[in-house]
Amino acid sequence: MKRVRDMTIRKDMKVKEVIDQMRKSGGFMAKNFGEAYTILEKMFEEKECFKFLSFPACIISTGVRGIIKDLVKEKKFDCIITTCGTLDHDIARSINPYYVGSFDADDTELRKKSLLRLGNEFIPMDNYGKAIEEFMQPILNDICTIEFSTKELVWEFGKRMKRDSIMYWCYKNEIPVYIPGPFDGAFGSQLWMFNQLHRDFKIDLMKDEDDLAEICFNAKKSGALILGGGISKHHTIWWNQFKDGLDYAVYVTTAVEWDGSLSGARSKEAISWGKINERAKHVTLYGEITTTLPFLISPFL
């Protein structure tokens, strides 16, 4: 057995030095944090490993959007699987600001002031729905192709966005973004509205699934950083079962497993489904993403 070791922190220490101590300390989530870093380190070094990044939309409303943008800008991941709201926030924030608010704000008063609350952030209504509509509808009118996959749509919009956006860098670096639930957000609502006057306009989700099938069937190795849960987490691990499971997997979650939810399921559960290989390096790190991710990923950027 390895001994639990005391950590020693100095004010001039780098993040990686602190993580090295967390790896050796053997205490609670510090140990899992250290393991998560070690797994990501090995995954990034593995040249033949196809790397998935999965996350929910809510974090893109925060400053973590900048970290996700930098990860795709630096080509750290080969593919993103996320939810529709990621596109919403990426578009809206490239046009207008969001504001720091409070979890304890009076939501009835916020409604009167046309302020949307997302956790402890405030979003003026016009900065969100109206901004997304005014940005999207002219582009949709400009696009001649009748049928798109979500990957193709993201790249079409990305090429028209600012360099501070996730979608721009995904387009620029040809990193596919797959949205398995494309209508669950403002972006999807705008697609529906456009379709009311352009009935030939279609979203072909089968193209996305064909892409994912080709990726997983041909990948020699695969790994994933899975932030949060929901459909983006499940779609990532679901497709990897057809490969023989992920070879590297890091889950970051605050959800519990005792309600049987996919969001709370630990990485070890996925082994029974074949979604993570039984010989894989994997760990579940309990932690809130906006707090955990900056420290976990900063040594790689």
Provide a descriptive summary of the structure in words.
With 301 residues, the protein is an alpha/beta fold. The chain has a domain of 204 residues: Deoxyhypusine synthase (Deoxyhypusine Synthase, 3-Layer(aba) Sandwich), CATH 3.40.910.10. The chain is built from 13 helices and 11 strands. It has a 6-stranded parallel beta sheet with strand order 7-2-1-9-10-11, with helices on both faces. Strands 3-5-4 form a 3-stranded antiparallel beta sheet. It has a two-stranded parallel ribbon with strand order 6-8. Helix 3 links the parallel strand 1 and strand 2. The longest helix is centred in the N-terminal third of the chain and has 18 residues. It is globular. The two termini are 34 Å apart. The relative contact order is 0.16. The mean pLDDT is 96.
User: Termini separation (Å)?
Assistant: 34 Å
Strand order of the largest sheet: 7-2-1-9-10-11
Order of secondary-structure elements? HHEHEHEHEEHEHHEHEHEHEHEH
Overall mean pLDDT score? 96
Structural class: alpha/beta
CATH superfamily of the domain at 25-95 and 149-183 and 203-300: Deoxyhypusine synthase
Radius of gyration: 20 Å
The total count of helices amounts to 13
Low-confidence stretches: none
What is the number of E strands?
Answer: 11
Strand content: 15-25%
The coarse silhouette is globular
CATH level-3 fold name of the domain at 25-95 and 149-183 and 203-300: Deoxyhypusine Synthase
**CATH architecture label of the domain at 25-95 and 149-183 and 203-300:** 3-Layer(aba) Sandwich
Q: How does the major sheet shape up?
A: 6 strands, parallel
CATH class of the domain at 25-95 and 149-183 and 203-300: Alpha Beta
